[in-house]
UniProtKB/TrEMBL annotation:
Its EC number is 7.1.1.-. It comes from Tectimicrobiota bacterium. This is NADH-quinone oxidoreductase subunit N. It catalyses: a quinone + NADH + 5 H(+)(in) = a quinol + NAD(+) + 4 H(+)(out). HAMAP family: NDH1_NuoN_1. Its main location: membrane. One of its GO terms (molecular function) is NADH dehydrogenase (quinone) (non-electrogenic) activity. It is a multi-pass membrane protein. The keyword Coiled coil does not apply.
Amino acid sequence: MNFVLPEIDLGAIAPQLWLTATAILVLMVQAFVPLVTSRSLALLSIIGSLLSLVATLGLWGQEAVLFSGMIALDTFSLFFNVVFLLGAILTVLISVEYLEREQIAHGEYFALVLFATVGMMIMAAGVDLIAIFIGLEILSLSLYVLAGFMRQVLRSNESAMKYFLLGAFATGFFLYGIALLYGATGSTNLDRIFLIAGERGGWGNVLVMGGMGLLLVGFGFKVASVPFHMWTPDVYEGAPTPISAFMSTAAKAGAFAAFVRVFLYSLPGLAASWAPLLAGMAVLSMVVGTLLALVQRRNIKRLLAYSSIVHVGYLLLGLLSGGTEGGASVLFYLLAYTFMQVGAFAVVVYLGGQGEDDLSLARFSGVAVRHPVAALAFSLFLLSLAGIPPTAGFVGKFYIFSAAIQAGHIGLAVVGVLTSVVSLYYYLGVIVFMYMRDPVDLPERRPSAALVTALALAVAGTVEMGLFPGSLLDLAQQSVASLLGS
């Protein structure tokens, strides 16, 4: 038997190749270059990420199917590449000061961030469930290690173990869902599933429904939607703060990329079956996340974790709306959320102490007196997360709710608006602590150039997407249109 290897267009996978090569180079430099600093490794990681970003922009508008129909090069995957790379670059920038302060400056940290980003890219480009699963595992394995990177801190070890056990459990659901869909359709290719799934009756239809439901469970865990959210606050609290930011933005975007491709592209004919489940997850995420955030005062990272569950509800609402408008609102909001959420965590990195034993709201009392710029930036990010105009968060929520109303989900849109209004209470609560309470003694420190750069980029992105959203929304619509063929 002759085995013929498929022809591979290396240029089409240049973004992934640049990141992979950079990650390997970081590991080699760490191993063989004496006295190398974390700043040097961070700079190397950023250069590799920028080269990958340039390669992504250079491929814009091209379309191809690679690796025997496993991977697609299209505008949809390229848009997500930009989101992933921005998230990775911002994460690396806010990690430099944090790693030095916590004395955990190891090169494998940056390599794992890059490998995780490669996994996200594969998930976004996957047009076969096997490819999506491979990307998911690359992402997950990297995050399991990063979540417990502070090996000397018990809380970090506990969070990594919890994330690993629950993640492995969710992966089992995802794999079994793939198996059922394969049994029903005879293929793991999304195009084949699209053609066959809606035509099967009897036991074939039961298998399709079962597989679809199990995939929904797997995706629900990865995006941290209710009722699959239990791991989120503990893992976000115990993980290194930059990794908490990375998990809540870029990693979540990777899961949503696959979510959109599978359900809007491959299973739209079964929307009558999965839409009610998705609607329930969206409502529960918005309501339960809001209620949990309202009573959270112990830790600012837990507050941001609970609030991230609410934002997952908004994103699920956009996904439920379907079509070009609904899908584009998800893409736009994920990009906006990356800027404002990483920016908020960047301020937490700056104001946090070594070991982060105390990240309660009391620690932020009177911050505006000693650190006025940090307080102003944090206020901007929190107001954007709350959806106050003219920020990126307001525009993103406006497009999601508009898409939901156009799709006939008026009740869900009302729930979204109400939870967004209620969220003002816990976001403004942090701002009140910063501006209207007596200051506490915080160690005087100058932020690193990398952290200042990250904050500047996050502020610029949050403001720019709020004031001038048109061009980015057009790109998001083009990306979804290229996926759906509309």
